[in-house]
Amino acid sequence: MPRGPVLNYDLADAPELFSTVLSRLIRVARRRFAMVRVSPDVRQTTAWVRDMLLEKGFSQARHPIQHTATSRLDLTRSIDDIFAGIHRKRRSQIRQYERVKGDWVFQLDNSLHCLGSFYTLYRQTMTAAGQDAKSLDDISLMHNCLSPCGSSLVFLVKRHNIPVAGAVIVAIGKRLWYLYGGSLKDDQTVSGAGLVLHWEIIKWAKNQGYAEYDLQGLPRVIGPDDPMYGIYHFKQAWGGESVQLIGEYDYAPYPLLGKFIERRLQHGTGHMG
C-alpha cells in the first residue's frame, strides 16, 4: 500500500481509525496467506503511528521499495514568495522562459489522446534512465478510475505544437502529487522542457487553491558526484521542504512467506511500483 492507508492523520479520531484499518489488513493477510506492506504518509517524527504499527505486529521493512524522503513545496505563499525561494540559477531560467513563452503551450487535458502523448514521453524517459516503465494499461486504469472525480490530471507542454514534456499528477485533498513524468528524449530534445512543465504546474496549482505540491521522491546523495545528484538538485531547486517520511512497515503472519518475499525484494525480483 504505497503511501497508505490514506487518511487524515491529523484528525482527533485518526488513531482509532488507523487501528481499525490495520486490524482489517491483518485479517486479510492471515486469510489470504499474504504479506501486507504499508507506508503511511506521515513524517518520521509522528511517533504514535510507528508505535501503533509495532503494537499490531508490523516491523520496519528491511528492503524498502518506495522513497523515504520527498520534497514538498508550500503553495499557500504568494507566487512572488514561491519564486523568491527557487534557486537563483533556476529563477534566471524561468525569467528567460517567460520572455519567450509564446513558443510554448501548456495544457491540462485528461483525454486518452493526451494520456497517450504523455506516455510516449514517459516511456522514452524511463528507457533513457535504464528503468522499466509502467504499462500504458496500468496508468490508464488508474487514470480512468480517478479522473472523473478530479484526482488524476494529465499535463502536457508543447513547443511548436510538438509534445516535449508531460506529467500525470494525482490530487488528494489540498495536495498535488507528481506521480509520473517524462520529456522528449531524441535528436529533438528541447532544453528546459521539464522546468517549463513544473513551473506551469506550480502556477496552475496555486491558482486552483492547492496548498502543497509534492515532487515525489528525494534520493539520498553524498555529493555532486553522486549519480542521483541531478534528480536531487532538480527537485530541491524549487525551494521545497525536505521531508523525512516514516518509511515502510510489513506484516507477515507466516514467517516462511515473509522470508521468501524479503529475499526476492533483496535481489530486486520483487519490484513493485
CATH C-level class of the largest domain:
Alpha Beta
Task: Tally the beta strands.
Answer: 10
Please tell me what the overall shape is: globular
Residue-averaged pLDDT: 89
Which stretches are low in confidence, meaning pLDDT under 50 for 5 or more residues running? Answer: 269-273
Largest sheet: 7 strands, mixed
Beta content comes to: 15-25%
Specify the oligomeric state.
single chain
Number of helices: 9
Care to describe what's here?
The chain has two domains: 14-66 and 245-266, no CATH class; 69-243, Gcn5-related N-acetyltransferase (GNAT) (Aminopeptidase, 3-Layer(aba) Sandwich), CATH 3.40.630.30. It has helices at residues 14-31, 47-55, 79-84, 88-99, 112-128, 136-146, 193-208, 229-236, 255-266; strands at residues 36-38, 59-60, 69-74, 104-108, 152-159, 162-172, 175-183, 212-214, 241-244, 249-251. The termini are close together. The strands form two sheets. A seven-stranded mixed beta sheet has the order 4-5-6-7-8-3-9, with helices on both faces. It has a three-stranded antiparallel beta sheet with strand order 1-10-2, covered by helices on one side. The chain is globular and about 60 Å long. Residues 269-273 have low confidence and may be disordered. Strand 5 (152-159) and strand 6 (162-172) form a beta hairpin. Helix 1 (14-31) packs parallel to helix 2 (47-55). It is α+β, with helices and mostly antiparallel strands and 273 residues long.
